[in-house]
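Sharing a chain and its predicted structure for anyone who wants a worked example. Both blocks are below, sequence first, tokens second.
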Amino acid sequence: MKHLDIMFHCGVGFYPLVFKGSNMKFGIFIYDGVEPIDLATFGVLSMARRIRPEIEICTVAPLAGAVALSNGLTVLADFGVADARTLDVLIVTGGPGWVQQARDPATLAFIQRLAGDTLLASVCTGGMILAASGVLDDKLATTKREVVAPEFPPIDTMRKSYSKIDVREGVFIDNGQVITGGGVSLCIDTTLYLLEKLFDAETASETARIMEYTTARQANLREFPPILLEVTNDRRDQRQ
């Protein structure tokens, strides 16, 4: 099996990411109650395929088939957690349905099973699902901040409910094999960052350009600076 060695410069040093095969396989985890805007993760990857046709995208849900997103949109998931294909990257989306998924044994077991061998990322309240699975223990993480009363900010819920997580604000936080992103439209920025991490800065910037998102991306990075951690070979986080 051919191996592809990828080097990413995170500002504090270089570290390799090694993926098997010639294509990069992304899975988008969806479920009943996902906020439709979080499907922008799929949209970013779709646009990126114009530059990197080796990108493959599929959707994964608790069960394959129809998934009722928030406010009436229904989509079809390609796979269920029991029969999901091998993935290089899993992006966990957010939305009101996160509460149920954070209690779902099959969902949590699926994430735990992928941890270590698959790059895990969350957008919006998908971070709450990662938190419930335990993969964020002893790591820095972020999630959605802004809400409408009487909702309680998910980032405060994460701080209150998960004492082993160092909760911070940022457009995204990279712990090496686990990445958490901010809320709602910041899912776009997190997905662009994945392209930069896995391919190169040009892939991310060119994708942002053809999406007409360059200005917004730059503004978000200034307003909510990301937190990038260097990871050693034994996967322990080194704060810089």
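Comments welcome. Helices lie at 40-48, 98-101, 105-114, 126-133, 154-161, 186-198, 201-210, 214-223.
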